[in-house]
Amino acid sequence: MTENHGVGGSIPPLGTIAGPSPSGGLTRTAVAREDERPHTIFQLPTPTLLLDRTRLERNVARMRDKVRELGVALRPHVKTAKSIDVLRVLSGGDDMPITVSTLAEARYFFAHGVTDILYAVGIAPVKLPEVAELIRAGCKLRVILDTPEAAEAVRHFIDAEGVRIEALIEIDSDGHRAGVAPTDPLLIEIGRHLGDCLAGVMTHAGASYDCRTRDEFEAMAEQERALTVAAAERLRAAGLPCPIVSVGSTPTLHYAQRLDGVTEARAGVYVFGDLVQAELGTCSIDDIAIGVLSSVIGHNRHHGRVLIDAGFLALSRDRGTGEMPIDCGYGAVCDPLTGALFENVTVSSTNQEHGIVTSVSGAIDFDRFPIGSRVLVLPNHACATAAAHDRYFVTRGEEAIIDIWERVNGW
Ligand SMILES: Cc1ncc(COP(=O)(O)O)c(C=O)c1O
User: Which atom of ligand 1 is nearest to the CA of 251?
Assistant: First the structure.
């Protein structure tokens, strides 16, 4: 991928979007200069986000093989990693279409040479000038919508501004969040508003996260596929163009048996995996590629609590495993060097900058957590935990830091 130099106007370059760069050092003086960069995880201030590149590569290869087997293109959702370096691992440096969840991601990835981008959150009319600016700069940015009002707003903007904005209609394939049902008369009405700017249909079966058995996952994946393909066929039968049929979530793609009629698959969280994904069976605990490195800062022997310096601002408030067979609290605790889980303990509660580690049953063994020692907290939900950090300290699962990769947070 090459850098784009044609991006002008109000589209800020990387660095102004991503906040202080590793060399900028406003937030972390430990990485202020090349010769001051930490070489091992033991030199890092805590809390901080570690990324195991070996696990990342393994996760990426698994999904790449699966999608290849299903015979569709992969359009990864970069909202999980929000990092050009992670995308380079996925793409091997080749051009690759992506999905984004913010226009900040669209600007950042376009500035790094990615041109085919689907902004997969229903478009707010107020964002159309920003979308148009990227398109005029050469980005093949598409938007999604699921109401006649939004389609009319896009059509009006196109006619008034003389810029071509292509849109996909979001299909409700599971009753989970957004989208228009494939049988709803509104589908055709929305399609007609868009006319030749209709690029296709897309869906995300978020309800797959509620499945528990293999049969349920496979049925949900088939439902996601079948309803989206049905919507595309209805649009085509009405004489409307519908070249793109886009589906996906990590669980539905992991369990999908076939994707006939689909042109592309989107998945995001699979790159890192997390405790929720491990419970859903899409990865194992040993595949989880990120964790929050934290220091043990206290022993509250009276209440059986080990205190660490990663609270909810470093771990996120996500309680994704709360309703699952194994409740991991705010994260599972492991040894940062061996990756071995400390069995029978979790981060059971958090304050802003405190994590409270307690035993699931019986007394906690304080000797396993000396004051000043370090633990790695595996996330419930990788997207939410990573969003609390502005960079990854990259390792190969050992103490050496091999890279520092930025993220693009914000909107
Ligand atoms: C529209 C859309 N597509 C794809 C994805 C990727 O799903 P997952 O994180 O399960 O891989 C998401 C995730 O929220 C999404 O919102």
Answer: 10
